[in-house]
Amino acid sequence: MVSMAQLLLTFLKVGALGFGGPFALLALLESEVVQKRHWLRPEEFAQSVAIGTLTPGPIFFAAAVHVGYRLRGFGGAALAAVACILPGFGAAVLFAALYLRVESLPAVVGAASGLAAGVTGLLLVLAVRQARSLARDWAGLSLAVLSFLALAALNLNPVWVIVIGALLGAVLYRDQTDGHGLTGRRV
Amino acid sequence: MLLPLFLHILTIGLFTFGGGYAMISALQQDLVTRHGWLTPAEFSNGVAVGQVTPGPLMLMVAFLGYKMAGFWGALAGTVALFGPSFVAVLVLSRHYHHLASSPRVAAALKGVNAVVVGLLAAAAVDLGRGTLANPGVWAVTALSLLLLSLAPRRDPAWVILGAGVAGILFLH
User: Fold this and answer.
1) pTM of this prediction?
2) Residue of B nearest to A86 (CA)
3) Is A18 in contact with B54 (Cβ distance < 8 A)?
4) pLDDT tens across the length of chain B (172 residues)
């Protein structure tokens, strides 16, 4: 059985060295627990990632918690959760504390407008990239436009938009999933 | 500030399916656009901090929480955002096979996938509305847009950081 100490070190390592967004983090976790240490088989890891898409919140985090749970039960899940966010949490708090001291410096104000410009660009690119998955899906495109209007014009709470999207999706796509679930198996 | 911060981020943590980028947009819409607790510039700093710190991008809530209510704000924001995901994994892992093979669940997630497009676009528009004040910022946005679409596999952190450096040099 995998020891708690090994589990702690592995997740601390992923949490401290994992840069570059959700896919990079999942790839790093996979290389640690599947390829290097052989704690899980590839299909078991794929199941943890699938659980990440079925649960709210960051997909990498949920996958990490599930890997911890599979290896050492509740304790393993808790350890994985804390260890994979602790290094980044410390760094973010440090950045925030420094930021409060320098936020009115001209260079920091300049950096903030540059960063805002970059983030605006990033969100637009992500919106377009995600919209491509809706090509010729008229129901999906209408949902996307309606949710944009609900948020931009009506200032609706984003949580409602997501919940309503899930409910409408369950109705609109009912016949299109052909009785297949996420795993593509027939029920 | 601590309690509203905790409750608002907890609601987002509970209901935002669709991964980290959907969460960034939901946080922007709720904390910046609807309530004005953070300025667009502060929020963008948070996104940048999430990019340059290791671990999940969503640790940006630690930065946002700290800005709103100090260290306890950082802790409350982090627990509120990641807590629901933790509990959901423990609860759902027992029902994994049932959920993963359910066409209803797959259909609902397709619906979420569609509204996330609108969510991302709304967050981008609101952020842009708050910050696109002069031609310099427009130029940096356009350049980031170009670089990000030309190199989709590259870590976006490099472009975001580059935009920050351009800001230090040209935008104050």
Assistant:
1) 0.90
2) B55
3) yes
4) 899 999 999 999 999 998 888 999 999 999 999 999 999 989 999 999 998 899 999 999 999 999 999 999 999 999 999 999 999 999 998 888 888 888 999 999 999 999 999 999 999 998 888 777 788 889 999 999 999 988 877 778 888 889 999 999 988 7
Number of structural domains chain B divides into: 2
Task: Specify whether B82 is located in the same domain as B137.
Answer: no
| Distance of alpha carbon A92 from alpha carbon A85, whole angstroms | 10
Distance CA B163, CA B51 (A): 13
Same domain, B23 and B92: yes
CA A146 – CA A140 distance, rounded (Å):
10
Choose, out of B85, B150, B165, the residue to mutate when testing the contact with A (most A CBs < 10 Å): B85
Return the ∠ at Cα B98 (arms to B95 and B99), rounded to 5°.
80
Please name the residue of chain B whose CA is at the shortest distance from the CA of residue A92.
Answer: B63
